[in-house]
Amino acid sequence: MQISSRFSVAVHVLALLATHRPTDGLLTSERMAGSVNTNPVVIRRILGQLKKAGLVEVRPASGGTFLSRQPAAISLLDVYRATEVVEAGQLFSIHEQPNPACPVGRNIQAALNKTLQRAQTALEQQLAAVSLQQVALDIAAKAAVGVG
Amino acid sequence: MQISSRFSVAVHVLALLATHRPTDGLLTSERMAGSVNTNPVVIRRILGQLKKAGLVEVRPASGGTFLSRQPAAISLLDVYRATEVVEAGQLFSIHEQPNPACPVGRNIQAALNKTLQRAQTALEQQLAAVSLQQVALDIAAKAAVGVG
DNA sequence: TGCAACTGTAACCAAGCGGGTTACAGTAAT
DNA sequence: ATTACTGTAACCCGCTTGGTTACAGTTGCA
């Protein structure tokens, strides 16, 4: 099954925050929802996860939402960990109750675990290597081309 | 969300086939289900996917099931591709309809795509690096220790 | 102080997937 | 023919997702 779009929506939201100018007024969940094209509640739920992870600061009422760190200090892995429900190290699910009376059943989990961990770690390292700043710059570059 | 356990069950089944001795009689879906601890139909469904991918040959009736290639020539990536419903390159899902009127909305998909592809490829390379033979040998080694 | 605007959450829904189960038709070896 | 197996359809339940409504809580500001 696919990894939830919560992750990409979260990156989207953070990119909005990273590129938002205070002079443009408040960046509310409704405006973010307009850019993502979803319901404001969906945005608020994701903002709640990002807040819990310490990536953003949300001030209720007309307070606004801000990044807690510089975009260069936020990696996509941070966002991934904040939004994925998957426990760390549990991207793959293994059948839980193989038959212990069978040599294969008894040892399959341990035999697979190493490899699956390595695979998952390889994926996460690629996410760790990209910062929100890079994404924001990439978007800005593309937007400039689109305009010009 | 987690990657379906179909994948690990498929590896389990293939490991059974790789270590099975013909003198031990037919390796039926029911016997495999006994080792995995699930329903025979679940095994048959997975065998169907493995068959379609050309990894096993299943002869109906009392014909038995066999690997189509040597265990050394079957990688876990082959198994992953055979069992995952996820289209190639679609491990991550991206929200489909961002607002084209917003610079971020218009460019987020392209900006994310590169990185997500890289992450997914990194995961798949780790799976490609491990063969069914290695898994079977690992299981045999562990089983020997367990017995001894 | 009271209003307006926003966030935080609970509650509910529909859709889709996963794994389990039953049932039964198809097929091959003996 | 009988027997033993595979192939598949059909159905179920539980879970996750994303969307939606509703409303209480909070804050800035007139």
Automatic annotation (TrEMBL), chains A, B:
GO cellular component: cytosol
GO molecular function, one term: DNA-binding transcription factor activity
Pfam families: Rrf2
InterPro entries: Tscrpt_reg_Rrf2 (IPR000944), WH-like_DNA-bd_sf (IPR036388), WH_DNA-bd_sf (IPR036390)
Protein name, as recorded: Rrf2 family transcriptional regulator
Organism: Hymenobacter jeollabukensis
